[in-house]
Every structure is written in structure tokens, then in C-alpha cells.
Amino acid sequence: MFMVLWCWKNLKDLYDMSIVFANTGQEEDETLDFINKCQIEFDLPVIWIETKVHHNQRKSCTHTIVDYNSATRKNDFIKREDTPFEEIIKKYNIPNHSRLHCTRELKMNPIKSYAKSIWGKEKYFIALGIRLDEFDRINSNHKQLRIIYPLIDKEMKPMTKKHINFFWNQQLFRLNLKGYQGNCITCYKKSNNKLYQIAKENQSSFDFFDYIENKYGNTNGKIPNKKEVLPNSEYKNTFFRNFKSAKEIIQESKDFDKIIIDDHIETESCEIFSNCGDLE
Question: What is the pLDDT of residues 223-249, one digit of tens each?
Fold first, then answer.
């Protein structure tokens, strides 16, 4: 959000700019509230989008436009079966370390779809909020892919987390999530230690993943992309490392006695457009 504010202030007269938030439907409520507050406080024209899945078609996800009030909330799966995340699972199966499609179909492709809807085939740049202290997360092909990093570029605004925190400490509000929580709180790319900490704090954070595993996890013993078949009880599609289920993460968290600090780094990176091919 700091990057958005800086770009909107310094670059909007140079570029036809669009601010896009792609809601997965499993973002933390605090994230949605924060974006809405920023829209109001800083007069930002944020476009809210969600994925549109095309079932029974050889077609990537496109987008549909929503807003703060109509955007899918993380507990909406209890009352409806067409939330964005569940829709991509119906088509692409449960994402995990073997099937890295959730960011692609929930964020990257909908954003590309929206960009195409307003700019057609014109080339455009994607600005991502990677900081100077996260330099190792930049895409090695970012120039060819027309990805820019305003918070790293020396000609723009090199910033570290300390700079960002200083800015938000001067504001009337900020995003009240801990570093290890993040917006997608139970992301399977997080370390087990982070997941255990989250489960100990609030095991209901895993409700959606548990619901999905129970509903779509039965594979009749067949291991994806492999020929062997195991007894049904020995293999299910799950989200987490080593085929762990949400229930197993919660159970194992009961013996977890470490403390994960706010900025503890034990997570594989999950930024969009990290390996996305041509943006056109």
C-alpha cells in the first residue's frame, strides 16, 4: 500500500495508472478493512476484482469486478459453494507444493484479464511492492516482463521495512496483522512453525482448508502425476507439506512450544508475477 500511495502521488501524471486489488476470498478481514480505509483516507480509486473460473473450457481465469461491500469474505464458504477459492479448486484441484496454481488463478490471471479489458493489447508495466531488504524476491526476468519495483529502483524510492513502518506509525491507522500471519494466513508455503503458531492462536483459521480437504481431498488412493495407487486411507489431496492435512497441523501445534516473532523469516516467497511468462 505504501508503494501504491507513492506511485499515485509521483507517477500518475506520467502514466495511465490503475490500482487493482485481487481478492482471493480468503484474505483476512483486516486486509479488506485496511484497503477500504486507504481508499477513503487517501482518495484512492482502487479497483476490486475476483477471479472468474471458466469450467469445462480450456481457458484461464478472467475477472469480475466487486467492491468492499460485495467482496467475498473468508467465512462465506459456510453459506455458499461458489467462493473464488473453491471455484478454482473445482477446476484445478487443491493447490499445494506440487500444484502451484492458486496465486496464478486467483491473482495473476484476473489482474491480466482486467488490464486487457481496459488497455487491450497495449503493453503495460506491473508495479510490485517489493522492498530494498527483499531484493532476493525480484523476478530475474523483470525487464522483459515489464515488471517494475518502485521501492527498490534508485531513481524512484528505495525503501526498507523500517522506512515503511515509520510512515505507517505516523498515520491514524495501519494494517494490524503480524508479519508471520500475512493476508493469506494459512498459506501452505509457510513453514510448519508459523502454521503451528497460527493454529495455537486461532485454530479456526484452518476451517476453510479443512472444509476443502474433506470435500475435495478424496483421490481413491491415486497419487497425482504418478502411476501407483495406494489404499484410499493412505492418500488424500491436502494443502500442506508432506501431505499433512489441516487437522494434522492443528493436532501437531498442541506440542509446539516455540515462539514465532513478528518478522520471523521461514516462508517461501509467494508474490504474484514471480514466474509468470509474458504479460500480454
Answer: 555 555 555 555 578 999 888 999 999
SS (H, E, C) 130-158: CCHHHHHHCCCCCCCCCEECCCCCCCCCC
Strand partners, 190: 267
- 62 contacts: CB under 8 Å, gap ≥ 6: 51, 52, 54, 109, 110, 113
What gap in Å lies between CA 21 and CA 265, rounded to an integer?
25
Residue 264's pLDDT band (boundaries 50, 70, 90)?
Answer: very low
Q: Which residues contact 199 (CB under 8 A, 6 or more apart)?
A: 205, 206, 249, 250, 253, 256
CA distance to 4, 132, 138, 228, per residue, from 179 (Å): 19, 17, 19, 40
Query: What is the identity of the amino acid at 77?
Result: F
Q: Pairing state of beta strands 46-52 and 62-66?
A: antiparallel
Closest listed residue to residue 22, CA positions, set 132, 102, 118, 133: 102
